Each structure stands twice: as structure tokens, then as C-alpha cells.
Amino acid sequence: MDPLPGLVGFAAALRAAGVACGPDRVRAFLAAAAALGLPRLYWAGRLTLCAEPDDLPRYDAAFRAWFGGEVPRPPARPVAPRPRRSTLAALTGAAGSGADDAPHPGASDVEVLRRRDVSGLTAAERAHLRELIERLRAEPPKRPAFRRRPDRRGTLDADRVLRAMRATGEPVRLPRERAGVRPRRVVLLVDVSGSMRPYADTLLRFAHIVARRMPTEVFTLGTRLTRLTRHLRQRDPELALAAAARAVPDFAGGTRLGETLRAFLDRWGQRGIARGAVVVLFSDGWERGDPALLGEQAARLSRLAHRVLWANPHAGSADYAPVQSGIAAALPHIDRLLAGHSLAALDELLREVRRA
Amino acid sequence: MHSPEDVAAALDRVGYLADPGLATAAYLGVALGRPLFCEGEPGTGKTALAAAMARALDVPLIRLQCHEGIDATQALYDWDFPRQLLHLRALEAAAPGALDADEAEKSLYTRRFLLARPLLRALEEAPCVLLVDEIDRADDEFEAFLLEVLGEYAVTIPELGEVRAAVPPLVVLTSNRTREVHDALKRRCLYHWLEHPDLPREIAILRRTLPEVTEALAAQVAAAVRRLRAADLLKPPGVAETIDWTRALLALGRDELDAEAAAATLGAVLKYREDADRVVRAGMAALLGG
């Protein structure tokens, strides 16, 4: 009997079970099966069709279901995520924003407003705050570029030195070069659920400023995921905000952070948007769904991203403890937990993004 | 080598005990000429596999350690600028005034002025084993670049032309999963997830690496390390730590792992204070299975 239909059918069953094995993997599988012989089919498939540890349990189950019998070794244990060494003190320490909430004696009105929680502002103060947000200093974080560029210091640029020498025979000038820098992508994920409502307007204005100044992707999380990057691209903040508000169907609804974060990673993040980016998640960490899922997705995000920052409006108050189910699950995978409740806190956040 | 068993036996001869899965992976890497992508916890023998394969196949091992910002001049080739300059001066001195600029420049871009970095060396010296260590530390751009080299086993140097490997080198990539490696790169590779070895294998590894260790001590240490891995530690010990621990016990002249000896040598196996505290709090008896 020709084994080919059976093998290709197995690959299709595996795809249905959620293992992403495309045609080139299937071809590799067939080559491996030919090289190893049918008795070692388990390994031929596992080595060519799987691509990450999460695939292994699925592969074992599909193998057992398709070919019957036992897999040659006990199903691989799911890999326990290794906790990162981060304590709350280390995450929130330097910011010290709790103590800064009290206005300094003799500080100007602007200085007071900068440190006020935006959820408790009057309409006039809000208008003033909008102007202040526009003036925030937003600079992108940097990453090393692949191409080298001329520089006054750095290593000698051999090509240009030799080219210059062809005319004179002497290295009169010594052109130098060094690796350039490129702006790193910034991803803003804004929780727009009911509990974050008082902050939504300020945060979207903030996102607009950031998106205008550096390569940025903006998404809102709530009961579903919405991409706002295109809406926030307009220059005028009021028009941009209005477009964003029209686009988000779940303003002030519930929160399913884990699910929407997974949707973000599946649809956008894994394909490239989160790769090597500085990701800022604005949320108070109230999770209606399963906190374990959020923890899992946060771990996935931290593996893709360069830095993951969590800005939590409540982290600004002195007696804050990260006990909400969501934030407790995600905390081990976050590089820094910051406040995000006042203009000063947003300024601090921008500084942290620039440094990332 | 005509079967996974042959590979396992060859690796065994050079002191690397591979389980059937790993031996199959290594065999397929050789038989299909595909890179082998190894992931797993630190200390499960990913890097050691490449070294052992090089010794088993009796070919050189060429290692490329990845880091953030690594680029082509560090991985592939670079021109030896000082020597080019020196050569130009020597030409001038030999034939004053009669130097043809074009000819002189052409003579600068020849193989003798090319510094071969690991990837180019691997293509030139093949058959060999190329170890691309900790690919998860490099950038996305570097992955794309590596993909190009691994796809064809050839590179083009504009001034010199194409360098193509006579036979594909055996490529072993390792990753600690600190970052997701792009799927395009993984697709070219065989994927193997390395687990910590099971108890009998770990005892065998200990006895092989440290011939002076007694069967009883090896069994005790391996069982204790297994218990440590099951505990929820920041850094579960790898095989390297098991060997270090046994070595420490041997250096102290112990032939049995008791509570006192374990407490004295815990630093050889646990590298974080929090982990050591946790184990001490749980009690040495629990660690020793008493």
C-alpha cells in the first residue's frame, strides 16, 4: 500500500489540531520519513512538523489518534514558564510616584496639574491638560541598525579610505563609520473597559501624540481588539480622537484582557508588530476572563517584544498593591510597572520608553 | 552513519549520551542536510551536542555566538584593512612611480586580505559542524541574513564572487527561547526540544563524565537534582549543575550525599539565593528523599 496519502493526511489532521505545518514542512516530513523508515515515523514527524514546545502535546495526541498505538515516549510535559526575577520593589521603585502626588510647596499651577490624577479634573482643567499633553517630549527608543553609516568616531571605513587613497596615494583623511541607530517600534495597547473610562480620553490623546512622533501601533483592548493606528494618523487631535471613538465599538464595556491580548498576538504581534518593539499596556488589571490565560499571553508577549511596560493608573497611589487577578498573573512577565494616572506619570512613561 | 543508532553509538564514543529522539534528530540533520534547531532549558546539552557531533564526525567545530546587534562583518567576513594598506605601500616601494591604480586596487581585494568570520569559514571548511549559539539573542535582520546563507550554503562577495560549500556543513542552532525566532528560519530547520535527561541517563552521564564517582553517589545526586527540578525554582539545575555538584562532593572526599554534605555544597547546584532559601526551608530531608 502506498503510505503517501496516510502521511499527508496525518499532516492535515495535525494542521486541524492547531500545529502550523505548511507544505514545505510536509515535504520535509516525507523526506525524513523516507530517510528513517516507518518504524521511526514518530520522530520523523516531530522533528519536521513541530516548531515550538507548545506543538509537542498536540503532536503526540494527533499521532496517537491517527496512527493508533502508543507514542514512543510519554507525552512531553507542558513547559512551565520560568518566572523572571522581578520584584514589585524593582518594578515600581525608581518611579516613586506615590510620594510625588503631594504638590510641592510653592509649585506653580501647571506643576500641580501635572501631578493630579486625571480622573478627578474639572472641565477647565481638562482643557488645560490637553494643551499640556501636546507639549510632552516624545522621542522614540533606538535600536542598532543593520547598515553602518559614516561617523566622526568609530572604526575606519576601509572602503572609503582606500577610495580616497587612489587619488593621492596617501590616507589623507581617515573616514570612519559605525553602526547606525534606527527608531524602535512602539506598540500601545489601551484598555478601554468601564473601569478605565476616566482615563480613556487622556490616554488616547497621549497615544495620538506618540503616534505622530515615532513609529507606533495603537490598539484598544476591551471585550474585543481594535486597531486605531490608522485613525490616529491625522494631524488634528480632535479629528483623530473622533475617528478613534467611532472605530471602537466596546468603549466602557467589560474586559477580557487575556483573550484580546491573544487576538492581538495571533493577528498582529507574532507576525511582526510586537517583534523587538517596546510594548506599553495601559490597564488597571481587572480581568473578567481567566487570569491564567492572561499570564500565558503576557509571557508570549514578553518573548516577542524588546520591553513590556505596564502603565496602571492605580499604581500611582501610595497604598497600591498589584493583587488584581489580571495584573498578578502578568506581573512576572513585565519589565516595568509604572503609573499612568497623571501628566507627570505619562512624562515618566515616555522617558522610560525612550530609555528602553 | 546509516541510522540513528549509529549516531547514538558514535556520540557515545565521544562521551555524549543522546536519547533516541536526539540521535534521530542528529541523524536526520546529517542525512537530509538540514540545519538542526535545538531549544530547551539551559543546561540540557544543546551546545554540547554540536561539539560532540563534530568529534563524532571527526570534522572541525565552528562556533558563532550571537548577540544583540551582531552584523555581517562579525558573522560572515571583513576586509583586513591594515594589511591592505601595508600591501599598497609595499607595491609603491617596489615600483616607485609605475603603479597602476586599477591594478593596485584589484590586488587589494583578493582572498588573502579577506578575514573569514565563522559563517564564511564554515562554508570554506565544510565538511564541518557550524554551531550558531543562542540565535534568540540576535536581531530580526540577522535572522533574515542567516536564512539567506543557510538556504543556499553559499554567499556572494561582490569583489571576489561566490563562495559555495562543497558539501553542506551540519548546522546546529540553539535558542533559550528568550525571544520567538521567526518562523521562516525555523521552517528550514529540524526542530528538536531537549528535555532534562531521565534518571538512568543522568546517572550514566555522571558516571561517564566523572569516572571516579560511585554508582551510589551518582544515583543519590541525580535523584536529588530531579527533586530540585520538580520544585518551583527560579533556575532549575541543568546537567552542567549536576556534574558541578558531584565534582564538589568528590573534591570534599564524600562518597555519600547526606544532609550536611548537601548543605555545604548547595551553592554548586543552586545559583540564586531565593532558591537556596526555599530548599533549606523545605528541609534537607525532603531534598534527599528521606
TrEMBL record, chain B:
Pfam families linked: AAA_5 (PF07728)
Spell out the Gene3D superfamilies in the cross-references.
P-loop containing nucleotide triphosphate hydrolases (3.40.50.300)
> Ranges for the AAA+ ATPase domain?
32-209
Q: Which GO terms describe its molecular function?
A: ATP binding; ATP hydrolysis activity
Q: Which domain of life is it from?
A: Bacteria
Xref: InterPro entries: AAA+_ATPase, ATPase_dyneun-rel_AAA, CbbQ/NirQ/NorQ/GpvN, P-loop_NTPase
Q: What is this protein called?
A: MoxR-like ATPase
Organism annotation: Actinokineospora fastidiosa
